[in-house]
Amino acid sequence: MSHHDKGQAILEFALAMPFLLAFIFFIVDCGFFAFSYVSLTNAVREGARCAAVGGTPDAVELRVTGTYGGPGEPTVDKPLDYVDEFGGTAPVIGGSVTVTAHHTYQWITPIGLVPGIDSSTAYTKSATMRMETNTVAKATC
């Protein structure tokens, strides 16, 4: 192997390394995104359970944001049927309550540099459960 061959190998490595690192970081970023997505699914389910056993809307929101383990903080909706059930009229046993949350994942990998690709992904998760009580007696779940 001559001296020029060693230089060629170093140059090829230097040219290939940024693409290899970007690919590895993208795979790790996809893992973080999947974790965030699954974590929001679980948090919304926990919030729906809290509402089904008589939690107040604030307690449900606190339960969703407290259970979510991903990056950032989700935004919890209070749908009209949920607000009506807890905001003046008593909830009905067997009626349903739906909890919905939104989150926008900011990609760490700079995929926003590619034209036509946004650097964030927004998604929404919701869960519906049946009411188990007629009273909203609990402040926390």
Structure description:
This protein has one domain (27-130). The model is unreliable at 80-88 (pLDDT under 50). It is 48% helix and 18% strand. The radius of gyration is 23 Å and the shape is rod-shaped. The protein is α+β, with helices and mostly antiparallel strands and 141 residues long. Helix 1 (3-52) runs antiparallel to helix 2. The chain has helices at residues 3-52, 57-67, 80-86, and strands spanning 75-77, 96-106, 120-130.
Question: What's a concise summary of this model?
Answer:
The protein is an alpha+beta fold and 141 residues long. It contains three helices and three strands.
Which descriptors apply to this entry?
alpha+beta; 48% helix; 141 residues
Q: What can be said about the biggest beta sheet?
A: 3 strands, antiparallel
Lateral strand order in the biggest sheet: 1-2-3
Structural category is alpha+beta
Q: Supply the number of helical segments.
A: 3
Low-confidence stretches: 80-88
* Secondary structure tally: strands: 3
Whole-number average pLDDT? 82
State which percent range the strand residues make up: 15-25%
User: What is the overall silhouette?
Assistant: rod-shaped
Radius of gyration: 23 Å
Q: Share of helix among residues?
A: 40-55%
Gap from first CA to last CA = 71 Å
Helix/strand order: HHEHEE
Instruction: Compute the number of structural domains.
Output: 1
